[in-house]
Amino acid sequence: MIRVAICDDHEIIRAGFKQIFSGFDDMQIVAEASNGREALDIARKNMCDVVLLDIGMPDQSGVDILRSIKQGQPDLPVLIVTGYPAQQYAINLFRMGANGYLNKECSSDELAKAIRTAAAGRRYVSVEVGEILAQGFDHDALVARHTELSDREFQVFLRLAKGESVSDIAHILSLSVKTISTYRSRVMEKMHLQSNSDLTYYALKNNLLE
Fold first, then answer.
1. Closest by alpha carbon to 39, among 1, 67, 15?
2. Is there a single domain that holds both residue 105 and residue 154?
3. CA end-to-end span of the chain, whole Å?
4. Which pTM does this prediction carry?
5. Which of 117, 135, 153 is the last residue of a domain?
6. Are 128 and 164 members of one domain?
7. How many structural domains comprise the chain?
8. Residues 114 and 63 both lie in one domain
9. How far apart are CA 209 and CA 207, in angstroms?
10. Is 33 a domain residue?
11. Residue 158 burial by CB count (10 A; 0-12/13-18/19+): exposed, middle or buried?
């Protein structure tokens, strides 16, 4: 039996998942989380075999939660199930260790297949995400600039785009102000932007902000 944890801040979404899982004999919902703190607690206590994680969470983003889980429990499979378009987030989150990226509108059969794949220790790549990843091998393809960022740079970029200060980010991520400033400089250089306002505009234009 595959033990699954649902991490989503919308109760109606969690209820929908539970209804879907009632039709599968080889998996069951064993835990639920409505915020990042609860999600990390579930991961630390080894309560499940696969985590279903949304990007938009109230206290911290799914990006931060994924990174924290992979630092503490690197072998715990995490499937991103979100309403955000794959082209905005999928590449970066796969680099951070996600075992799959699904849209919430996916079929129940695809969701089950992704969970079984992740539980077996493999990555599930949907047709949509496969096409996006394949573009990385096409030098003529237009690749969004944020996909060139490292996982930590991407994490800092999202927080800067939300208007958080360097000192606030340093405190939240338990890093020095100097280190965050260095990441900020790298982000600006890689994305060819000049200011935090430019970052915010880019993030809004590319539907990256929650």
1. 67
2. no
3. 34
4. 0.75
5. 135
6. no
7. 2
8. yes
9. 6
10. yes
11. buried
Which segments of 77-145 does DSSP mark as H helices, in order?
86-95, 108-119, 127-135
10-residue stretch averages of pLDDT, the chain, 210 residues long: 95 91 92 95 94 90 93 95 86 91 92 96 88 60 73 92 93 93 93 88 82
SS3 39: helix
Does residue 149 sit in the same domain as residue 109? Answer: no
Residue 120 CB neighbours (<10 A): 11
The answer to whether residue 54 sits within a structural domain is yes
Tokens of 29: 């919902």
Q: What are the Cα distances from residue 51, in Å, to 58, 126, 155, 175?
A: 17, 17, 20, 27
Is residue 112, in this structure, part of any structural domain at all? yes
Range of the domain at 191: 145-205
- Specify the residue for token string 């573009």: 135
Q: What is the pLDDT of residues 162-176, one digit of tens each?
A: 999 999 999 999 999
| Sign of CA pseudo-dihedral 199, 186, 146, 13 | negative
Cβ of 39: how many Cβ atoms within 10 Å? 31
At residue 48, φ and ψ (nearest 5 deg) are -145, 170
- Round the average pLDDT of the chain to a whole number and report it: 89
Phi, psi of 191 (to 5 degrees): -95, 0
Q: What is the CATH number for 58? A: 3.40.50.2300
